Amino acid sequence: MELFGHLERFLSETLYPYRVPVTLALVLMAAVGGWFAWRRGWLGRARRAAATRPLASAVLAVLVLAVVLPSGYYLLSPLWTRTTLVEDSPLAVATAEATAATASPTAVVMADSAAASPTPSPEMAFQPRTVLEGEWLGADDFHFAEGRALIIESEPGKYVLRVEDFSVRNGPDLFVYVSPDPAGYTEAAVNLGELKATDGAFNYEIPQDVSLDSIRSVVVWCRQFAVLFGTAALE
Which strands form 217-222's sheet, in the order they lie side by side? Predict the structure, then answer.
């Protein structure tokens, strides 16, 4: 799988910026190669060989298709597959709950009690807040990523990663990590789970044993091929 990762990085980082001239050159090479094979009679000999050994040719074609088609679909289908997910923000949920509580009859009684006791408990005083944020950047011209990444303290000592206005290049086996390196993925990065969607706004709970001081970036990482898709440095 490491070989596929190197190949993917070569194609996306080295060739993709020059995709137009490279494509034209490949088309020209294919045309020249086809003409040369026709002139030398290779195409005719291959056709006659297939006609004389139809069973062997059919088995070979089935084997090739059985490998090429599934592999090609797995590697290439993410290029045209997009998904969208929109989840509520912990900040919006807290605001809605506070509004509903204020409007309820029980809230009036609690407000009267709070007026008699001017020192609220830490639980009552706490409001979810954004503690870190950053902008998504793609790893290169091919691997784009855009939107915002927020670390929200949803409860005292409990943190949630939220992505908003988010869009990223799709790919196989993509996961979201929080990393101690502002530049992106490292072996010490913590896996928060599979990428939920290529577009939208959604949340990931951060394990409580992950220190806020150790989070310096958020990463979309292709785990199978070890390829970086996007990074958001956090401040």
Answer: 84-86, 199-205, 158-168, 145-155, 129-138, 227-233, 217-222, 174-179, 190-194
10-56 per-position pLDDT tens digit: 665 565 565 567 677 777 888 888 787 777 887 677 777 777 877 77
186-223 pLDDT tens trace: 999 999 999 999 999 999 999 999 999 999 999 999 99
| Close Cβ partners of 222 (under 8 Å, ≥ 6 residues apart) | 5, 8, 171, 172, 173, 174, 175, 228, 229
* Cβ pair 203, 161 in contact under 8 A: yes
Distance between CA 158 and CA 191 in Å, rounded? 17
Q: What is the 3-state secondary structure (H, E, C) of 147-175?
A: EEEEEEEEECCEEEEEEEEEEECCCCCEE
pTM, two decimal places = 0.68
Pairing of strands 129-138, 190-194: unpaired
Of the candidates 155, 188, 79, 154, the one whose C-alpha atom is nearest the C-alpha of residue 219 is 188
DSSP-based three-state secondary structure for 119: coil
